[in-house]
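Researcher: Let's do a round of design. I'm pasting the structure tokens now; please hold your answer until I've finished.
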């Protein structure tokens, strides 16, 4: 059996990583508490759901792990990715790994999904239409602003 996991990587861009992290915390807190279904735990009590927000370091990304996305529901992960990209005012990437066989990346900018890449669109045993396969192949040009070290969209495509 392979690994199953999800996360959202939020790009800090030209903003202060500490400020972006504070914004992410505030947005997640509001999203969860405003629904009236959650109570924030500040002591050692056992939580029903965990949301972890990575540290604001020198790198341009902050990782967010929400236990609610771990059931691999793509809609839940996409909604979180859109919300975090909107909050950060830039890019966020929803990452889903299924059984160590499938990598799905959803790129969102300022609250809108702009690209999707799925390494195995036929993993569930059904071959999607040619149009859907093209959509799931991703568009490396849409990732251009996130590439580092002189990498190009052609490099990403390869």
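Researcher: That's everything. Go ahead.
Model: Designed sequence:
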């Amino acid at each position: 059996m392979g690994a199953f996991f999800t996360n959202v990587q939020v790009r800090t861009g030209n903003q202060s990583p500490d400020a972006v992290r504070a914004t992410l915390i505030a947005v997640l807190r509001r999203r969860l508490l405003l629904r009236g279904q959650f109570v924030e735990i500040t002591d050692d009590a056992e939580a029903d759901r965990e949301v972890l927000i990575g540290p604001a370091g020198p790198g341009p990304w902050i990782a967010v792990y929400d236990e609610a996305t771990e059931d691999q529901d793509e809609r839940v992960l996409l909604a979180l990715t859109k919300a975090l990209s909107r909050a950060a005012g830039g890019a966020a990437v929803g990452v889903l790994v299924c059984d160590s066989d499938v990598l799905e990346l959803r790129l969102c900018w300022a609250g809108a999904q702009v690209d999707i890449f799925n390494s195995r669109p036929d993993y569930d045993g059904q071959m999607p239409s040619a149009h859907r396969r093209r959509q799931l192949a991703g568009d490396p040009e849409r990732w251009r602003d996130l590439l580092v070290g002189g990498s190009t969209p052609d490099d990403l495509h390869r």
